[in-house]
């Protein structure tokens, strides 16, 4: 239930951002992200933790993150920075998705790989600051570079573990 509320709020956030109301979008983005980050704690407190719940939560978190970035993209396409903005949103979205994918693949192979600079909470804070202060391009530059750096850190981490185990 909490996960579903977070995804729905993220869709509303995307529409608000796309319409150009960055401050309201930033505030609601923080609230929606809070729902997304609390669902696991709520499930644990209720004694309702399941493998499917964890899978669903992780998957819907990717939807939440992607739909908000789509709202940012739609907003930026209406500005003089459309081309650079679109490229940065693409890079930030790809990097964000690959962070989760790298962790999931590492865990499937039996390794812990939650290393790196920009886990989801850090990405939320960076984008929220960009929205609240109407500084989307600097925030997107940080996300675009930082997410891919995080992916590389995870790849290197798993590579190091596998070399040590060989």
Précis, in short:
The protein has 6 helices and no strands. The chain has 166 residues and is mainly α.
Describe the secondary-structure layout:
Layout: H1 2-18, H2 22-46, H3 51-76, H4 82-108, H5 120-132, H6 136-165
Helix pairs in contact: 1-2, 1-3, 2-3, 2-5, 3-4, 4-6, 5-6
CATH topology: Four Helix Bundle (Hemerythrin (Met), subunit A)
Helix tally equals: 6
For the residues shown, what is the average pLDDT? 94
Residue share in helix: over 70%
**Strand portion:** under 5%
Ranges with pLDDT <50 over ≥5 residues?
none
Largest sheet: none
Amino- and carboxy-terminal Cα gap: 44 Å
Please state the second-level CATH architecture: Up-down Bundle
- Tell the overall outline: flat
> What count of structural domains?
1
- CATH class category: Mainly Alpha
Class per helix and strand makeup: mainly alpha
CATH superfamily: CDP-alcohol phosphotransferase transmembrane (TM) domain
Number of strands: 0
Radius of gyration over alpha carbons? 17 Å
What does this structure look like?
This protein has 166 residues and is mostly helical. It has a single domain, classed as CDP-alcohol phosphotransferase transmembrane (TM) domain (Four Helix Bundle (Hemerythrin (Met), subunit A), Up-down Bundle), CATH 1.20.120.1760. Helix content is 83%, strand content 0%. The protein contains six helices and no strands. Helix 4 runs parallel beside helix 6 (136-165). The radius of gyration is 17 Å and the shape is flat. The termini are far apart. The model has no long low-confidence stretch (mean pLDDT 94).
